[in-house]
Amino acid sequence: MPDTPLYMQFHFREQVKDAFEAAIQQEVSKFRDAGMIDPDWKADQVVFRTSQPLAFTETTGQRGGTTQSGEFTAGFRSGFVRDFECAIQFDKNDERKLYTASLPTSEVQQDMRRAWNRTMDTIFVEAAMAQALGGPKPYITVQANPAFMTIAVDWNKVAINAGVNSAMTIWKIQEAKRRMRVNEVDLDSEMLCLAISPDMEMLWLSYAQTAPNETFARLIAAYLEDPSKGILNCKVIVTNRLTVNASGHQQALIFTKRAFKLNSPDYDVRVDTLPKDRHALQLAAYAKTGVVRRWDELVCGAWVDLGGVLV
Q1: Do 201 and 91 share a structural domain?
Q2: Residue-range definition of the domain harbouring residue 182
Q3: Is residue 61 included in any domain, yes or no?
Q4: Residue 236 and residue 175 share a domain
Q5: Any idea what the CATH number is for the domain that residue 30 is in?
Q6: Domain check: are 124 and 269 in the same one?
Q7: Is 75 exposed, middle or buried (0-12, 13-18, 19+ CB in 10 A)?
Q8: What is the pLDDT tens value at each position of the chain, 311 positions in all?
């Protein structure tokens, strides 16, 4: 066998696959740490059964009687595994890149891992405000996302101010938290996350610099000084993956970690020689993963006009 990367020996092919799979499973996308992995989600479709809100009933200490019980009758929610692929082809002139392909630190593997993490972030954003699937068997009836969990672009403090759009304000964050609490969500026991765009973060920075003594500006300054502390008890995720509507408005997301269920992604990496392409070598990664919004009341979307008011 010629001593050239285009005729890699079997053990080197396996080394490429093993290193890639090990490294990609250790990396975490921006959103993946903000969801709950369901180890029992093995099939292409998983169905979650939901109960009505439970409540304790006082029995006044009487002897005997009939137990008052509830059932899981509130409905069903389906989650589906999706298939993805990413492939890169190496020509005979790509020897320098190919020689290091077995290393987790190689540019090839780093580029593919970053591409996968971006894909995972996109899947989360899509699941956040998408129509759910559930209902009776086969559990694929479309169920609209509750309108109550979407904050209008012209929300101003405690009500809509028609025609006056606003940016990502403290009031929209607090309104999202209020709506969760109205739905009996105990935010004291939840991990709360806020997903914003880089443009929103830059507007915050500009406001903090021009009005340093304002309440919101001080909160922003504290966040920018140490982003790990978040803002208003929210872990902040800065991402390019937010939804943008036809008007150019971006949809920020306020949600809890418990809102999403995801499976453990399954990866398969293949290294193949392509005789018809002058024996070029192809590195392909295949992945299967799924994310579903488990609880509607734990996810709130806030439309943001980057040119709107910020206070």
Answers
A1: no
A2: 146-259+296-304
A3: no
A4: yes
A5: 3.30.2400
A6: yes
A7: middle
A8: 344 444 445 666 677 777 777 777 677 678 877 889 998 998 999 999 877 777 777 777 777 667 666 655 558 899 999 999 998 888 877 777 777 777 778 888 888 888 988 999 999 999 999 888 988 888 899 988 899 999 999 999 889 999 899 999 999 999 999 999 999 999 999 999 999 999 999 999 999 998 888 888 999 999 999 999 999 999 999 999 999 999 999 999 999 999 999 998 888 888 888 888 888 888 888 999 999 999 999 999 999 999 999 87
CA distance 143 to 34: 23
Under 8 Å between Cβ of 204 and 217: no
Helices 215-225 and 198-210 pack at an angle, to 10 degrees, of: 120
Same domain, 111 and 203: no
Q: Is the pTM of this model over 0.90?
A: no
* Angle at 134 (CA atoms; ends 131, 139), nearest 5 degrees: 135
Whether residue 141 lies inside any domain: the answer is no
Alpha-carbon dihedral 187, 191, 192, 198, rounded to 10 degrees: 170
